[in-house]
Amino acid sequence: MNIGEMTVDQISAGVQSVLLDHMKELKEAYAASEEPFTISITAKIKPVPEGNRIDIGLNFVIGRVKDAVIRIVNENQMSFLDEFKKGNVEISVGGSDHEPM
User: Is it the case that residue 30 has pLDDT exceeding 60?
Assistant: First the structure.
């Protein structure tokens, strides 16, 4: 098999078709975008007995999720709760005239 003008024409028609099929979503995503709006289009061509199979893919982000989790862990620091459970921690309330718990 080979790639010629008919294959290129069908790729172009497929790209136009998929863009028009998703025009509403594209407009909404573009209007909501705070950064440059990116549309990725792929064309996969695979030889099959009938000729060239062309798969057109469309990829764009409708919404943006921004999140962050920050944690600081010190593996060398003993856990207060672990030490309390072992009975290695005493808690007292108030001044010197109260009994330790």
Answer: yes
